[in-house]
């Protein structure tokens, strides 16, 4: 004759095991976002004159004030520029082009 308590114990053990697996899965999903945070971003924009016309071929310089590093790019035919993987920090953004006044702005972190 089988022991009725043994059968209940086996079912209880399976329920506890499944519950523990679900708890671990939920914990892993919830903490996954914590590991995915980043201290980098992108800076992008469009160079335009005072009338709103785009300015292709402008030199755009990004200076990291904290690290004293400089990166440069040139605006494309649509006047767009971008700096990918820019670390969080304070920057000076300068734009120059022959025939135009130099423009600069200090950003905050």
Outline the structure in words.
The chain has 109 residues and is an alpha+beta fold. The chain has 2 domains: 1-37; 40-106, Immunoglobulin-like (Sandwich). It has one helix spanning 4-35, and strands at 40-46, 59-64, 69-74, 80-87, 91-96, 103-106. The strands form 2 sheets. It has a 4-stranded antiparallel β-sheet, with no helix packed on it. The protein has a two-stranded antiparallel sheet with strand order 1-4. The chain is globular. The model has no long low-confidence stretch (mean pLDDT 80).
Q: Provide the CATH superfamily of the largest domain.
A: Immunoglobulins
Order of helices and strands: HEEEEEE
Number of domains: 2
Number of helices: 1
Summarize this structure as a short list of keywords or feature phrases.
alpha+beta; 2 domains
Q: Would you spell out the secondary-structure blueprint of this structure?
A:
Layout: H1 4-35, E1 40-46, E2 59-64, E3 69-74, E4 80-87, E5 91-96, E6 103-106
Antiparallel strand pairs: 1-4, 2-3, 2-5, 5-6
């Amino acid at each position: 004759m089988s022991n009725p308590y043994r059968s209940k114990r086996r079912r209880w053990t399976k329920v506890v095991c499944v519950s523990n697996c679900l708890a671990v899965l939920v914990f892993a999903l919830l903490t996954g976002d914590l590991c995915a945070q980043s201290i980098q971003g992108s800076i992008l924009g469009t160079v335009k004159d005072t009338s709103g016309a785009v300015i292709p071929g402008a030199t755009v310089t990004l200076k990291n004030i904290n690290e004293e590093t400089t990166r440069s790019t040139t605006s494309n035919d649509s006047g767009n520029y971008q700096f990918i993987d820019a670390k969080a920090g304070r920057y000076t953004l300068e734009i120059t082009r022959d025939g135009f006044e130099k423009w600069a702005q200090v950003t905050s972190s």
